[in-house]
UniProtKB/TrEMBL annotation:
<feature type="signal peptide">
    <location>
        <begin position="1"/>
        <end position="24"/>
    </location>
</feature>
<dbReference type="InterPro" id="IPR014094">
    <property type="entry name" value="LpoB"/>
</dbReference>
<dbReference type="Pfam" id="PF13036">
    <property type="entry name" value="LpoB"/>
</dbReference>
<keyword id="KW-0732">Signal</keyword>
<protein>
    <recommendedName>
        <fullName>Penicillin-binding protein activator LpoB</fullName>
    </recommendedName>
</protein>
Length: 200
């Protein structure tokens, strides 16, 4: 009985010790602050790319001209990730799209929700559950006039405890009717890291 009591006490003590080591302090930070934990693609890189692309595009004279009297309809194609990292490129396009919409210069069609919209329209038209007087008629959606797409690539070099990564993001606005590329922009980012000496 004493042995069991001792074993139980030891187990509880060990669990308490490990739970104490695993505790952590959590605090909020500035989402816009520069993130430098690693050289990998991060939130600051995303913010810089989005700001650069939107600012350059809105300042381009032909784009200024095409948006003076109306708001052209765009869609964003998925960005091609040509790096060796797993990068959520959808976050980049979402941020760029958000900034462009809020500029008041463009309207967007969301190609990621086409399947869900088709299902809803089919339900309204074919299920027999929806009042035909309120059902949305198919064939009346506004078509996109322009497409935004881009590539994200990188070059990584490592030598003597030092590493360097170069990111290049390219983005373009293409006229769907003519195939003409109306605008293109790029943003370059270089990040370096040095491995700390052992014990420091």
């Amino acid at each position: 009985m004493k042995f069991r009591t001792l074993a139980l006490a030891t187990t509880i003590g060990t669990m308490a010790l490990f739970s104490g080591c695993a505790s952590q302090s959590v605090s909020y930070g500035d989402a816009q602050a520069t993130e430098t934990l690693t050289k990998d693609f991060g939130s600051t890189d995303l913010q810089q790319i989005a700001a650069k692309m939107v600012d350059d595009m809105l300042a381009f004279p032909p784009v200024i001209e095409m948006t003076q009297a109306r708001r052209p309809v765009l869609f964003v194609d998925r960005i091609k990730n040509k790096t060796q990292e797993h990068i959520d490129t959808e976050s980049i396009t979402d941020t760029i799209q958000n900034k462009l919409i809020n500029s008041g210069k463009f309207r967007f069609v969301d190609m990621t929700s086409v399947g869900a919209m088709a299902d809803q329209l089919a339900y309204q038209q074919q299920s027999g559950m929806v009042d035909k007087r309120t059902a949305v008629k198919t064939g009346s959606q506004i078509a996109a006039e322009y497409m935004l797409n881009g590539n994200l690539s990188s070059i990584v070099k490592n030598s003597g405890g030092k590493s360097d990564v170069y990111y290049k993001f390219t983005f373009k606005l293409q006229n769907l009717k003519t195939g003409i590329v109306e605008w293109t922009g790029e943003k370059e980012i270089r990040k370096s890291a040095k491995r700390a000496a052992f014990g420091l």
